[in-house]
Write a structure and sequence with these properties.
Oligomer: single chain
Strand order of the largest sheet: 8-11-12-6-13-14
Number of strands: 14
Largest sheet: 6 strands, mixed
Helix content: 55-70%
Shape: elongated
CATH superfamily of the largest domain: ABC transporter type 1, transmembrane domain
Number of helices: 17
Radius of gyration: 35 Å
Distance between the termini: 65 Å
Strand content: 5-15%
CATH architecture of the largest domain: Up-down Bundle
CATH class of the largest domain: Mainly Alpha
């Protein structure tokens, strides 16, 4: 059975390195290396201060044993100076490390967010469900990756340098231990070093056995917590629909079930952590008296002074801490590896989508052609079901096309394919090189922010002046909103479905696209207002090519051509 915390495995380390190394060669590299080297330098400096403290401890306790008041007060002054230097170094080491963590996290977040959002990768990931909770991977796992890697690597460096610095001190200070066994005298040089090695080795082995499940449990806990948060978010976003359905009890049960999964895994995690914590605390407490127990014989035999005994205790503790780095950081290692595993799976999924390229229709441009044309277009659902089989079509500039068909026949999927976001399609689509296309879905997207940004979307908020926005709102009968352009709210919850659809029409009036595709974009309006919206588009966008999906018969009067999709066949009049 493989070890779930195989941090040292070559494959894991290589993959983790591929995540880490781009930052150190990026445009941020100069400042990154300066911050890293400064943190490393301060870490090494603090180890040297620890060595000075160790020598101070021997001299201080010898002064106490000898009742030497002059040395006592001088050594207290020396301690205050060393302590002030150590405190200053520790504060600035942590400050510089945290600064490096945040700069690294910001760079990775920008990189992954850009990759995730480019080429509709985020949409493809949702379609094939190749990775769950990408928001968590970007918001939490990148933070854990950067902070964990710096904490663990600098901690390991500190442990190695401390070990090298103190093992010689402990070897010399402890001296040899002689014991007669069966008439044979055995001498163990530097016996306290061997005692520290055995103590740390036993502790590491027990820690590994007790903590093995932590990576799996930590990973599962993060996933279940994310599912629970997502369920609560969905409940809040759909509060009105749930209330109208009287579905609060169903949602309560579902929420409790999701939290039950969180709780079940949490109990397993906390039980494992409890066992590990019980041992690591015991290990640290026993270590306080262990060196005295081992060295007591030589001290009471008069072979060392009190100062030497305290120096041995301090050096033993430093060596033991260094050798026990694995013991003391196991829980952090487990949490870090779980985060890295999740980040690696997200990285692989994004890279796979990017390497796969733009699946779907092969979209090309034409110069001087006033039409959108499709050749041998075949559209499938993710399960392989064909909704349109090898079809040729042309939409000339200025056409008014109505697309109808039974619910579920694939009309909206056809629009998705035309927009280039549907990966389960084949064939060729030709679009005029200068064409500006706008697709309005049945449920418009409403960004959280100002109303000005919501109306201008997908253009920047300052793309249109306020007077143009107010005029567009008035045309779609949303004049009462004109005074709230700067108000920042969740407009998907503030506005009714009909108001949202009319706001989407206002976007079209502002953007003035060459080709406008309406996917039941007026389905939430009553017949009178729907008619007025189509009359508005006809009057204000006379040169715009209009392609609509609709079920109401009255919409047909605003179109000259009628297409019908049925049984994977597009019937064109």
């Amino acid at each position: 059975m493989s070890d779930p915390i195989a941090i040292g495995s070559e494959r894991f380390l290589m993959r983790a390195w591929r995540l880490a190394c781009p930052y150190w060669a990026s445009e941020e590299r100069s400042r990154a290396w300066l911050l890293l080297l400064s943190s490393v330098g301060l870490t090494l400096f603090m180890v040297w201060i620890d060595v000075l403290f160790n020598t101070w401890q021997k001299d201080f306790y010898n002064a106490l044993e000898e009742k030497n008041e002059t040395d006592f007060w001088a050594l207290l002054g020396w301690f205050c100076l060393l302590a002030a230097i150590m405190i200053t170094a520790a504060v600035y080491q942590q400050y510089l490390q945290r600064m490096l963590e945040m700069r690294w996290r910001a760079w990775l977040t920008s990189r992954y967010t850009s990759t995730w959002l480019s080429g509709n990768t985020f949409y493809r990931l949702e379609l094939d469900r190749s990775t769950d909770n990408p928001d968590q991977r970007i918001a939490e796992d990148i933070r854990t990756f950067t902070s964990g890697l710096l904490n663990l690597s600098l901690g390991l460096l500190n442990a190695v340098v401390t070990l090298v610095s103190f093992i010689g001190i402990l070897w010399i200070a402890s001296g040899p231990l002689s014991a007669a066994i069966g008439g044979v005298t055995i001498t163990i040089p530097g016996y306290m070093v061997w005692a520290a090695l055995l103590y740390a080795a036993a502790g590491s082995a027990i820690t590994w056995m007790l903590g093995r499940p932590l990576v799996r449990l930590s990973n599962e806990q993060q996933a279940r917590e994310a599912d629970f948060r997502f369920g609560l978010m969905r409940l809040r976003e759909n509060a009105e629909g749930i209330a109208l359905y009287r579905g609060s009890e169903v949602e309560r049960v579902a929420s409790q079930q999701r939290f039950g999964q969180v709780l079940h895994n949490w109990w397993s995690l906390i039980r494992t952590t409890k066992r590990l914590r019980f041992f690591t605390i015991s290990y640290a407490q026993v270590a306080i008296v262990f060196p005295f127990w081992v060295a007591a014989g030589r001290f009471f035999a008069g072979q060392m002074t009190l100062g030497q005994l305290m120096q041995i205790s301090s050096a033993f503790d430093k060596v033991r801490e260094s050798l026990s780095w694995f013991v003391t950081t196991y829980a952090e290692l487990a949490d870090w590896k779980a985060s890295v595993d999740r980040l690696l799976s997200f990285h692989d999924a994004v890279q796979a989508r990017t390497a796969h390229g733009e699946a779907g229709l092969a979209i090309g441009t034409t110069d001087g052609d006033a039409a959108i044309s499709g050749c041998a277009v075949t559209i499938r659902m993710p399960d392989g079901r064909v909704v349109m089989a090898s079809t040729d079509f042309t939409i000339a500039r200025g056409d008014r096309v109505l697309l109808t068909g039974a619910s579920g026949s694939g009309k909206s999927t056809f629009f998705r394919a035309l927009s280039g976001i549907w990966p389960f399609a084949s064939g060729t689509l030709r679009v005029p090189s200068d064409a500006r296309l706008l697709f309005l879905p049945q449920k418009p997207y409403m960004p959280i922010g100002s109303l000005r940004a919501a109306v201008a979307y997908p253009e920047p908020p300052d793309r249109f002046d306020d007077s143009a926005i107010v005029t567009a709102l008035g045309l779609v009968q949303l004049t009462p909103l004109a005074g709230a352009l700067g108000a920042e709210r969740n407009w998907a919850l503030e506005l009714s479905p009909g108001e949202q659809q009319r706001l989407a029409i206002a976007r079209a009036l502002l953007c003035r696209p060459d080709w406008l595709f309406l996917d039941e974009a007026t389905a939430s309006l009553d017949e009178a207002i729907e008619r007025q919206m189509y009359e508005l588009l006809e009057a204000k966008l006379p040169d715009t090519t209009l392609v609509s999906i609709a079920h109401r018969p009255q919409v047909a009067r605003f179109h000259q051509r009628h297409w019908h999709l049925e049984s994977a066949t597009l019937q064109i009049d």
